[in-house]
Amino acid sequence: MSQYISQPWQQLLKANQLDNFEAFWQLDAGWVEEPNFRRGGWSGVSKHTLNSHDGSHKIIYIKRQENHISRSLRNPIRGIPTVRREANNILNFNKQGIPTLSLVYYSERSLEGRRQAILATEELTDYLSLDEWLQQWQQTPLAIPLRNKVIEASANTIKQVHDAGFRHGCLYAKHLFLKVIDNKDVSVKIIDLEKAKPRLRSRHRMIRDLATMYKHTACSNTARMKFSLYYFGLKRMNNSVKSDIAAVLKRARRKLKRNKAKVRHESNY
C-alpha cells in the first residue's frame, strides 16, 4: 500500500486543507515525540486538531518519516518505510476485529532521493496506557472487580493478537491503551504495530511477546498470575501452562541478563 485515505475522513481532511501529501508534510505542528534519528533517517510524531464546520473537532496524530527504512526478506535491498508496515498492520488488525487505532491517512513519496512517508491516526480519547493505570493503582488502588477487568481485558486483547497469527514484537505496557466505560466495562486498544509480524508457531508468538511484557511491566506477582490465567482461559494453573510460563520467565530473565551485560560493557568506554 502506497496511499490510503479513510473514506469517513475525506471531507474533514479537505475542509482543513490536508487532503494531499505536501499539505501534511508542511503542516506546522509541534512534536509530541521529537524526531529520532536511526535506520538511516528520522521519524517524529505531531498532534493536530481538525475543525468541522459545525464547531466540533477531532484530534489526529501524524507520524512523519524520511529515509526511515525497514528491510526484510521480501525487500532486502531497497526496503520499505517503517510506517508502511504499521499502516498495513492497522488495517489487517481492524479487518480481524483486533482493537487498535483507526487509520486516517497514509501516503509515501520519493523526492530528490529522499523517501518520505506519513501516517495519521485518530486520537484515543479518554484512554490511558497500562503503564499509567499501574502507576495510578500505586497511589489510589482500584476496586478489585474493576482491577480484575483491566487485567482480563489486557490479557484477552494480547491473546486475540496471537490467535490471529501475529506477534506484536514490541509488547510493552505503554502499548496497551485502556478506557473504563460506566465504571464496569473496559475497552482496550493495542498500538505501535510497526514490528508486528505473522508467525506460524503459536508458542513462539506467546513466549516472545509475554517475555517482553513480563520483563518491562512493574506489577505484583498476584496481578501477573491473574493475567496468565486470563490469557490461557483458566481458573487454575495446570502443568502445561506452568511449563509455558516457565519458558516465558526464562526468556525474560535471559533478556534482562543480556541487557545488564550490555550496560556494563558500554559503561567501560
Description:
With 269 residues, this protein is α+β, with helices and mostly antiparallel strands. The protein folds into two domains: 3-122, Phosphorylase Kinase, domain 1, CATH 3.30.200; 128-267, Transferase(Phosphotransferase) domain 1 (Transferase(Phosphotransferase), domain 1), CATH 1.10.510.10. Helix content is 41%, strand content 27%. It is built from eight helices and 13 strands. Strands 1-7-8-4-3-2 form a six-stranded antiparallel beta sheet. Helix 5 crosses helix 7 (221-232) and helix 6 packs across helix 8. The longest helix is centred in the C-terminal third of the chain and has 29 residues, at 239-267. The mean pLDDT is 89.
Major β-sheet annotation? 6 strands, antiparallel
Structural class: alpha+beta
Percent in helix: 40-55%
How many helices? 8
The tally of beta strands, per DSSP, is 13
Supply the CATH superfamily name of the largest domain: Transferase(Phosphotransferase) domain 1
Short description:
By secondary structure, the chain is α+β, with helices and mostly antiparallel strands.
Write the topology of this structure.
Elements lengths: L2 E3 L4 H6 L5 H5 L5 E8 L2 E11 L5 E10 L2 E2 L9 E2 H14 L7 E9 L2 E9 L5 E2 H10 L4 H20 L2 E2 L8 E6 L3 E6 L6 E2 L3 H15 L4 H12 L6 H29 L2
Antiparallel strand pairs: 1-7, 2-3, 3-4, 4-8, 5-6, 7-8, 9-11, 10-13, 11-12
Helix pairs in contact: 5-7, 6-8
